[in-house]
Amino acid sequence: MKIQLMRLPGLCVALSILTTLLPNPIAAAPPAQSMNPIGRVARLFNRNLVEVEARAQWLGSSLGYLAAFEEKPLREGLGWRCGCLDESAGNSWVALDLGRDVPLGEIFLIPAQRQTGDLNDLFPRRFTVEAACQPDFSDARVIHSSGKIHQGSPEGYPLRLAGDGRPARHIRLTLDEGHHRGLKNAAALSEIFVFNFERHPVSFGAKVTTSQSVNVPRIWGPNYLVDGRTPLGLWEGGASTWTNSRGDCLEVTAEDPRAEWMMDFGKSATIDRIVFFPYALPELSGPGVVPPLLKVEVAGQPDFSDATLIATTGSDDLPADLTTPLVLPTRPAAARYLRIVSDKAWQLGNRHLQALGEIEAWSGNDNLAAGLPITVRNGGLDHPIHELTDGVGSYQILPIYSWLTQLVERRQVESKLAELNGRRTTMASESELNTTWGGAIALGLTFLIPVAIVERRRLVSRTQLDKLRKRIASDLHDDIGSNLGSISIIARSAKREMEKKLGPGELTNDLGEVEIIARESSLAMRDIVWLLERRQDTIGDLVQRMRDCAARLLRDVEYSLVCRSSKTTAKLTLDAKRHLFLFYKEALHNIVKHSKATTVVVRLYDVRDKLVMEVTDNGVGLPRGEGDQIAAVKKISDRARVLEGVLAVESEPGKGTTLRLTVKRTSLMATKKMSHE
């Protein structure tokens, strides 16, 4: 029976095309500048915003050179999980035996993936990491301690802990505080990577011991902490690579599935570990495959007649699909030739495939397989290939330390970028708002300047008018008031002289009338001057003037003036001040001339948004005219109408009179012009 050996070039090309069509997982940086005109103008005046945007753009572009963070949950071998199974046993812990003393470089803790029902990845809240050379940790030294502060989950990213460079064989992590998930102090980790001072991984395949471990076959177990498998995917970084190199994929028969991959190091070497990268199949849309059962042999002869087995995947089949590299620690053996044997093919439908994406053979810090040709053998056919050792997949394959370091750096950059983007958004909003207001103000000023010029002229005219009014009031008070006072004094003196010489008579009576008229005219002149005075325009000033007027007009009458208004400091317009005072003065004149009252009560008070002036006397009441109209209140009614107020008159013959004027305060304080009488 002829064995058919077939390469799958079509499969490789299809995978290449599919990869190039997939979106780049690296997030692009936000645009440095806004495209709207206001944003562009705002940036001309805000240098800090431009610098923040440039910094954010630079950080965003730097993410393209770092390993991508993309969680790919595992189906098996999730890691180590613990909980308080026995409170008397103390805190949970996990210890790694590295097999030999190594100068301790750095430790990376990888959070476990979240499971259904978990609010987070159960990363320990507080923990302590110790290093020691003795298995009982009698010489333990603390490498890291959370103390009393919660560590906080790194949200899936690796957490890097610095070592002290001193020799250590044993590493122990003690849980000081965990979570409550069914068990007290529950915690979980996916992987613990330990590197020596030369950045070489020394924890793969380490012996692991634990306390209070929650073990679930093929899911949770201590050994999964050192198998190299994490939810973070392949050890790749940098920009996507345009290449047809995806590894090697053979289609074999069910009768003869055996495949061998062989390489010649050119010299004898000791291999520390073998790393297999899965072959990505388009049919699986992401996960890759490796042969279900693998064994690794070394030999000093090219025909492998003296072959020694140094590593194997065991008797259990590997997972059907892999999202992580497969790390096999090896037994110490020096040899020149290495052979990888697979006796069982991976089945896809009715096809049988032997596939690998990349092979690494590490000796210390050196990948001895890098760039070496590999001979692939199936049945009687041999052929060399280079795709399994070129260090390229969809992205560049990185050393494990570089890959972890780039992920840590990515988290720092993304955190800083998020902070800068928050600042940029705030600064951009403020700058654009200020620019908008500035533009609006500038535009408004263009139209308001003419208005301001007109208003200024109006104010100048008003100021000049106020000065003229003040000068007129001063002239009336000083000149006319003085002349009236002189007339009153001369008339009084002449009356006295006439009475001494001629006795009382008609002439002396006339001189007395002249004195009275001059005195009343002088008092009226003072009222006119007060009405023109702008510095005394409040309700309180009006009340004081009303008291002076009452003292002058009601000399022979018992009176009281009560103000209950809470707005005595409110300013009155000039017309409102004039009409209120003249209304009050006219009411007092009517009382003095017609009422024959012996008691007068004047009250000012507030009723909601109105001011009420009430004048009450106990006189004979107001006389009635034709049609039962009160003729004596016509003039004060006119003043009430000018004030837009309501006048209520209550009067009965022999029972006195009450005048009640109610005016809205807005009418008294308004700036509108009032008509003059």
From TrEMBL:
Secretion signal span: 1-28
Record key words, sorted: Kinase, Signal, Transferase, Two-component regulatory system
Pfam assignment, any one: HATPase_c
Domain Histidine kinase/HSP90-like ATPase: 578-665
Source superkingdom: Bacteria
Domain Signal transduction histidine kinase subgroup 3 dimerisation and phosphoacceptor per the UniProt entry, residue ranges: 469-534
InterPro entries for the chain: HATPase_C_sf, HATPase_dom, Sensor_HK_TwoCompSys, Sig_transdc_His_kin_sub3_dim/P
Gene3D superfamilies found in the cross-reference section: 1.20.5.1930, Galactose-binding domain-like (2.60.120.260), Histidine kinase-like ATPase, C-terminal domain (3.30.565.10)
GO molecular function: kinase activity
Membrane-crossing residue ranges in chain numbering: none
Name of the protein in its database record: Histidine kinase
Organism: Luteolibacter arcticus
